[in-house]
């Protein structure tokens, strides 16, 4: 099995290998993003309570992003270290790395369990502007999502076990089953059972737990390259350090999505526009936009799996091919999604306003946001692909710098300036493509410098 794995990663033509491994990863990541989109569609259409409930979910969303961030960050470190160890044929290290990944996922879940129980109301209150309905709804939703986040965190680890050994289709099947469960339960819990935002939260966590359980079955039954013996679930500081030397930057990069979301909620909440409408519109837009972002992350994760393996083997020809196709394929995917969102901006936004009322105004604002912000998607894709390359060859700070630029350094001051306009609901969305273009330009120089330092001499 190990030989088959080596042959696949070391000899399959790079163009073919990228799509074979990348497409399931894209689907898996997009389905992860759809959890929150689906919740928002059902919640926003709850009738008179819809707009307020959507604002509550928007305020809670940064913590949901943070849960994903720490899971993905740990998973990226695992993926890179597992792929490298498999490339080096170091079986004992592979097993120990996997065991430490499970240990870390347990620790992370305990942290979010405690936050959900004791910090949810405090966090929601920071951004709710004293609106008791928003505080109540947001607290209920966040408590359930955090206290039962074992599915979200655990799945990111077992998903990487399957991806690092080339079984990306199996991780995608697990993700699809969870997403389908979420869609069905969203409808049942919110409408026939009238559970409101609590129903949306329960649907989400049950779907995530289903994905985790299926991924665990696939791993322990079919993933023969990694020994699932519980004796390996024993913390080793050297391995934990190695995982987070790679993964910490990914965790922080993903975590900056949470910072960006919370910061934009605060900035938009201080503008001249109605905060329920503007903040709610941004929340819906950002969840839709994550379909594109997570597609790029899927290909970035593919770059990490393939490039880490071949970098471990010091195969310069395949390293160069991986970088080339990683960037080209990411550009193709993000460009296709740009055209889709430009053409279907209004129909997509209309899904959030099927019941009329305040949501009608949200549709118009979301349509404008999608059409303007999608201009920057191809530049975003390039920056995310570069981050994957940098992580694969051992850089931690440089990918983080790229995330800081595109999510904080450029976004907050530009957004604030646009909120001073009398036409804030139309112009503030230009913040996003401007930030992406500026970041992509800087990413070109970072990639060139990094290539010269780490790859040129091989």
Task: Give the key terms.
458 residues; mainly alpha; 18 helices; globular; disordered N terminus
Basic shape: globular
Largest sheet: none
Per DSSP, the total helix count is 18
Counted up, domains total 1
Overview of the molecule:
With 458 residues, the protein is mainly α. The chain has one domain (11-454). Helix content is 84%, strand content 0%. The chain has helices spanning 2-11, 14-44, 50-87, 91-118, 120-127, 132-147, 150-164, 168-190, 196-222, 237-269, 275-313, 316-350, 359-373, 377-392, 397-409, 411-419, 424-427, 431-454. Helix 16 (411-419) runs antiparallel to helix 18. It is globular and about 60 Å long. Mean pLDDT is 86; it is low at 1-7.
């Amino acid at each position: 099995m190990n030989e088959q794995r080596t042959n696949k990663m070391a000899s399959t033509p790079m163009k073919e290998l990228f799509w074979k491994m990348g497409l399931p990863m894209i689907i898996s990541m997009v389905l992860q993003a759809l959890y929150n989109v689906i919740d928002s569609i059902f919640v926003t259409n709850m009738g008179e309570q819809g707009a307020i409930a959507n604002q509550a979910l928007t305020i809670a969303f940064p913590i949901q992003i943070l849960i994903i961030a720490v899971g993905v960050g740990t998973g990226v470190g695992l993926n890179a270290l597992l792929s490298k160890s498999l490339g080096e044929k170091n079986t004992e290290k592979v097993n120990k790395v996997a065991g430490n990944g499970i240990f870390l996922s347990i620790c992370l879940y305990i942290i979010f369990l405690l936050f959900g129980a004791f910090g949810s109301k405090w966090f929601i209150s920071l951004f709710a502007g004293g609106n008791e309905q928003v505080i109540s709804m947001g607290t209920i939703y966040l408590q359930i999502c955090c206290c039962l986040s074992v599915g979200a965190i655990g799945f990111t680890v077992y998903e990487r076990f399957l991806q690092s050994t080339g079984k990306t289709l199996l991780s995608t099947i697990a993700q699809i089953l969870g997403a389908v469960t979420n869609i069905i339960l969203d409808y049942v819990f919110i409408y026939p059972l009238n559970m409101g935002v609590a129903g949306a939260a329960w649907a989400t966590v049950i779907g995530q737990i289903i994905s985790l359980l299926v991924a665990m079955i696939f791993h322990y039954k079919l993933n023969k390259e990694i020994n699932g013996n519980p004796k390996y679930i024993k913390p080793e500081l050297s391995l934990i350090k190695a995982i987070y030397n790679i993964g910490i930057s990914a965790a922080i990069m993903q975590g900056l999505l949470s910072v960006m979301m919370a910061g934009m909620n605060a900035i938009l909440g201080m503008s001249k526009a109605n905060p329920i409408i503007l903040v709610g519109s941004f929340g819906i837009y950002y969840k839709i936009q994550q379909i594109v972002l997570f597609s790029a992350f899927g290909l970035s994760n593919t770059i990490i799996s393939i490039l880490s393996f071949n970098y471990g083997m010091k195969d310069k020809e395949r390293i160069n091919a991986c970088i080339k196709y990683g960037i080209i394929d990411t550009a193709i995917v993000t460009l296709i999604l740009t055209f889709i969102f430009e053409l279907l901006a209004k129909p997509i936004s209309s899904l959030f306003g099927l019941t009329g009322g305040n949501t009608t105004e949200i549709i118009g604002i979301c349509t404008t946001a999608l059409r303007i912000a999608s201009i920057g998607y191809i530049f975003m894709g390039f920056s995310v692909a570069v981050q994957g390359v940098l992580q694969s060859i051992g850089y931690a700070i440089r990918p983080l710098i790229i995330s800081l630029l595109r999510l904080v350094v450029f976004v907050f001051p530009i957004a604030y300036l646009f909120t001073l306009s009398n036409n804030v609901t139309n112009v503030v969305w230009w913040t996003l493509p401007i930030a992406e273009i500026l970041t992509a330009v800087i990413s070109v120089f970072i990639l060139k410098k990094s290539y010269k330092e780490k790859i040129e001499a091989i």
